[in-house]
């Protein structure tokens, strides 16, 4: 299951694609359980900054200072990984994965408990995406991202 949440599927694999046959910046495929992210069109200055933040400074963990810089200055981060309302791409696709439906699938509101200790309540797709993403982050997602970034950049 997606760490710390009630989900229908195992955690999805997140990949960067070389070729994109869709018009989407990110999408979830239910059959393969893969979230694909298209890095084509990422601005050079944002890539350079992420390399510096994640690689060159040799961080051992993602600090609040790093997150503040990324949140305020980096468009890749702000489109994909940050916690905003309405939700960014990755939380949106993680919620599709948790629900076990594809990006063509439903964006219905749900009345459900999303994680242990949660109260059943009605949430829009954006609200449930962000609630799940907060749980995923609380379970160390950004530190996993830091480790994965070494192979991305
Ligand atoms: Zn969607």
Q: Quick one: how many beta strands?
A: 5
Q: Please state the CA-atom Rg, rounded to the nearest Å.
A: 15 Å
What ligands are attached or bound here? Answer: zinc ion
Strand order of the largest sheet: 1-3-2
User: Helices and strands: which structural class?
Assistant: alpha+beta
Could you give a quick summary of the protein structure above?
The protein is an alpha+beta fold and 153 residues long. Helix content is 43%, strand content 12%.
Polypeptide structure, described:
The two termini are 28 Å apart. The model has no long low-confidence stretch (mean pLDDT 89). A hairpin with a 4-residue loop joins strand 2 and strand 3. The longest helix has 14 residues, at 125-138. The protein has 153 residues and is α+β, with helices and mostly antiparallel strands. Helix 4 crosses helix 5. It has helices at residues 44-56, 64-73, 75-80, 89-99, 125-138, 141-152, and strands spanning 13-16, 26-29, 34-37, 110-112, 121-123. The strands form two sheets. Strands 1-3-2 form a three-stranded mixed sheet, with helices on one face. Strands 4-5 form a two-stranded antiparallel sheet. It has one domain. The protein has six helices and five strands. Bound molecules: zinc ion (ZN). Zinc ion is lined by residues 92, 96, 103, 107. Zinc ion binds next to helix 4.
